[in-house]
Amino acid sequence: MRQNSLKQACSMTTALALILMAGAVCAKPVPAQKPGEPPVVTNNVDRPETSDEAVLALKSMTMPITATPLDKLPLDKFHLPDGFKLEVYASGLANGRSLQLGDKGTLFVGSRIAGRVYAVTNQDGKRAVKIIAKGLHRPNGVAFHDGTLYVAEISKISKYPDIEAHLDQPPAPVTIYDDLPKDEAHGWKFIKVGPDNKLYVPIGAPGNNLIPPETHAQIRRMDLDGKNVEIVARGVRNTVGFDWNPATKLLTFTDNGRDWVSEELPNDELNVLTKPGQEHFGYPFCHQGNLPDPEYGWGKSCADYTAPVGLLGAHTAALGMRFYTGTQFPAQYQGGIFIAQHGSWNKTQKTGGQVVFAKLGSDGKVTSVEPFLTGFLENNELIGRPVDVQVTPDGALLVSDDLNGAIYRISYDAKHAAK
Amino acid sequence: MRIPLALAVATVLTGPVLAAGPSIEGCTACHGAGTSQTEGIPSLGGMPALYVTNQLFMFREGQRKADPMNSLAEPMSDEDLQAYGAAIATLPAPTYQGPAADAERVARANAAIAKHRCASCHGAQLGGDKGVPRIRGQREEYLVTALTTYKTSERAGFDPQMNEVAGELSPNEIADLAYAIARKP
Fold first, then answer.
1. pLDDT digits 0-9 by tens, B13-37
2. Which one, A2, A81, A205, B81, has least CB within 10 Å?
3. Domains, chain A, ranges and CATH?
């Protein structure tokens, strides 16, 4: 009974009231920060409170850690545009998240709470899943370069040299960098080696909305031995996916917007870094390029921060992204970006839970964001959660789903496309 | 009423996991049949099956560190975890029996519950659902430990949301919350 009436209460009026209220009562001065002292971390905005009906109607997002057996995967629920087809590339990878291909075709898969790194081998179409590391501390990030696998745990990055030759007996990891905070909140990392042969490592804000310490809310880059560390971007709340634009070579990254402002704002962002070391992307003062923070925005101007090149929807949890560089898909996909949206929790009507395709205009700004792989949302519950995407050498697209512990492969066959 | 570990482990691990569900006598020896009488050991009554399964997964993989649960969960298969989850979920929820709670502390705790929106995830009555635990009626000292270790990141949830929430709690708030939630009728 209560469930029902609450659902109805989440109609426009309540949602609207919540937005207005959140906007109106939250302005609080930013606490003064004396030079040399650690930054003041203050509490979150006080609204909405639990007593607000819409908040009680929020269904919390929880999911099993165990993987869904192959024959129980909800494949018949998924939708793709005409001519595309989806098959299971690998299953049984509990909590499998970030994807990275090795030179010899091994797919490396990081995880968060399972603490494991998986390797999916692919020999003559026969695939096998191996656990190459376990008991790690949220090893979400996997990068591969010149035969070496790099794994990012919350506060440490290690390398596994010549990994593809030693999948059955992986070498002992060598720590290359551990000058990282230990916070769990937004502490898990996506990592990748850039065209400059440097390793890019983000450090999220240690909470929803706060003045971050100097060490957080940024992206660093470093040599592959962990030396020569620089901060390349600041004001980044939590990026869990990035890639380099093959045309411009610029770092392009998703960033997750803060919670609890309203159900419709702020959007998750797609950002481009043009001047490494000199750009601030707004968090926590300005969100989505034009929304001053209700708590910390006073006295700040959004014009002082780099605005996103595209907006990806509020609370969609835009995570992994890759430019489409293959030739298998129709020409319109060339140079655009596939983005995995993990799905919302801070929203009564859930969104996300899909892979979208973003097109860029000649000015580098996003011109459209269209659903690509959908069907993960059923009756306002997520039945799968896309985390990362990866283009394979034959031009197919792999997608990880950490709720089901599965990797899907999407391919295109013009013959089957509707005329 | 501390149970010798070796004995408890032996009790738990004898007997195969039957189709009818595993025997949880070994578990309840420590945890009580729903309500724990032992300091440091949480009550499991009324916990959602998915929460129990997820925690056992994390114990097995060493992602949540706590003796003796790591060694107990180690030999379990995914199916075992799910079977224990389902069996534990049948235990009756704890209900507070002691003297009336201090109204002032309860009022302070209720304010903190509203401010930090605990009920948006734990449910209006803090009874939990799916992967979110029941906290109402849980042992007070265990609640203090849980909230404190989330705050320091020593304990990581299967989802880091609790670390975010607890990061915003002061030690006084934690004390009041634990006091009132443990006594919540």
1. 444 444 567 899 999 999 999 999 9
2. A2
3. 2-42 (no CATH), 70-416 (2.120.10.30)
CATH number of B5-88: 1.10.760.10
pTM (2 d.p.): 0.84
Residues of B with CB under 8 A from a CB of A: 50-51, 53-54, 57-58, 61-63, 78, 81-82, 113-122, 124, 129-132, 150, 153, 156-161, 163-164, 167-168
CATH 1.10.760.10 maps onto chain B at 5-88, 103-182
Looking at the complex, does the CB of residue A19 fall below 8 Å from at least one CB of chain B? no
Q: Which two tokens stand for residue A152?
A: 């990012």
CB contact (8 A) between residue A56 and residue B124? yes
ipTM exceeding cut-off 0.95 for this assembly: no
**What is the distance in angstroms between the Cα of B159 and the nearest Cα belonging to chain A?**
8
Q: How far apart are the first and last CA of chain B?
A: 25
Q: How many helices (H) and strands (E) does chain A have?
A: 3, 29
Number of CB pairs, chain A paired with chain B, less than 8 A apart: 104
- The CA dihedral of B136, B179, B132, B10, to the nearest 10 degrees, is -90
| Cβ contact B137:B95 at 8 Å | yes
Q: Answer yes or no: CATH 1.10.760.10 is held by domain B103-182.
A: yes
Q: Give pLDDT tens digits for A37-62.
A: 333 333 344 456 555 666 666 656 67
